[in-house]
């Protein structure tokens, strides 16, 4: 199909309109200028509103780009050009692009032919794409760094656990059992800490964690934390560091109501970092209370935090050293968890750091209530004698059963071992003398929750305590709904087990 000239021009104008590309022509000898309809729209005018001119065009160019713009048009006489520049449309600053050349076919009249486009939106999208791409690359690098680091952090304690366990299997121990056992326990606790941190991040990020406020003595809490810090310093061979704790309140007046567990976690994470990175000098921890807000300050004389990392240290998996040759171990979760826990308590965290001088990390927790008496005091450990009572340990793993058996050995309680959900239900139905059930949840045949429901249907007054590795938010509620009176998340301490049982056994 053959089109006439008028049709061709109409189609060309339509294409230019769709593409948002204008077109102008300038005749040098006559100093006449013509704009296409799109050019008028780009500069914010009605179509063919007036006769265009070079002078009017220059008024739209940003003053700082005008000289460059004019020189580029002049250069067009000798070669084709493409430039980007800033211009104004109805007072709004935009970004434009022109591509053009000067036609001199008849060697007599110079004619400037230029394509004109507003590329503001294109550039914004390009910037957003580049930003998203850089963010994706950063996330990928961060993930790779984290996985490599996590592999190291997990394999290190596992190596100790497996290695010392193999040594315990040999006959020639020469009195090394206690030392090896301590190493296994220490490595196991380190491994548990890593797992707990990963679970804690999951709960905090999902906003399923909730504050649990109780009365406690803040000075006593700081004293306990100080003792733990001294042990850590000894393990890190940093006993030479000075560790100072300063309390704003007298011991008898230092009872407040807030989330003790989270405040302990926050302080321990920050102090652990300070000890790890400080080689000489001191570490000071202090607090003050003002208008129901408690503010903590932890100051160290470490190397300080480089400016490039000051906005990153409270992000997850971030460490000042993120390469294979780093000098300090760690998952990069401690300060991130602290930030999330502080935000959960409606608080805020900030820091001041100077290279070769040290770092001060401050955080504040609002809505702290001072009280006159202390509830929730942990009871003094007791020696229990339950020789007239019987407990069923529902546990399919032999090693876990042996641990519970050892924990209960000195209580003289009678023990029945049930290895499946069906076995524990049968035991409770056939032995009226059973006083308590320690129920694992992940049991063969029927799980512990279903077993608890069946037992409660027949023996509603029988106490069931869940002891399970299910430790995420909501798991405790599932246990209680099934009929359990307590929920102990593995691994738990011997004292936790005995305390829980003592509530239901005289």
Q: Please, what is the CATH homologous superfamily of the largest domain?
A: Histidine kinase-like ATPase, C-terminal domain
The overall number of domains is: 4
The secondary structure category is alpha/beta
Task: Report the mean per-residue pLDDT as an integer.
Answer: 83
Instruction: Work out the strand percent.
Output: 15-25%
Low-pLDDT regions:
321-328, 375-380
Largest sheet: 5 strands, antiparallel
Q: Could you give the order of strands across the largest sheet?
A: 2-1-5-4-3
CATH topology of the largest domain: Heat Shock Protein 90
Overall geometric form: elongated
Query: What is the helix tally?
Result: 14
Write the SSE topology.
Layout: H1 5-19, E1 21-27, E2 32-35, H2 37-42, H3 54-59, H4 63-75, E3 81-89, E4 92-103, E5 111-118, H5 120-168, H6 177-205, E6 214-217, H7 218-235, E7 242-246, E8 255-258, H8 260-277, E9 282-290, E10 293-300, H9 334-344, E11 348-354, E12 358-365, E13 369-370, E14 390-394, H10 398-408, E15 414-418, H11 421-430, E16 434-439, H12 448-458, E17 463-468, H13 475-482, E18 486-489, H14 494-502
Short account of what is shown:
The protein is α/β, with parallel strands linked by helices. It has helices spanning 5-19, 37-42, 54-59, 63-75, 120-168, 177-205, 218-235, 260-277, 334-344, 398-408, 421-430, 448-458, 475-482, 494-502, and strands at 21-27, 32-35, 81-89, 92-103, 111-118, 214-217, 242-246, 255-258, 282-290, 293-300, 348-354, 358-365, 369-370, 390-394, 414-418, 434-439, 463-468, 486-489. It is built from 14 helices and 18 strands.
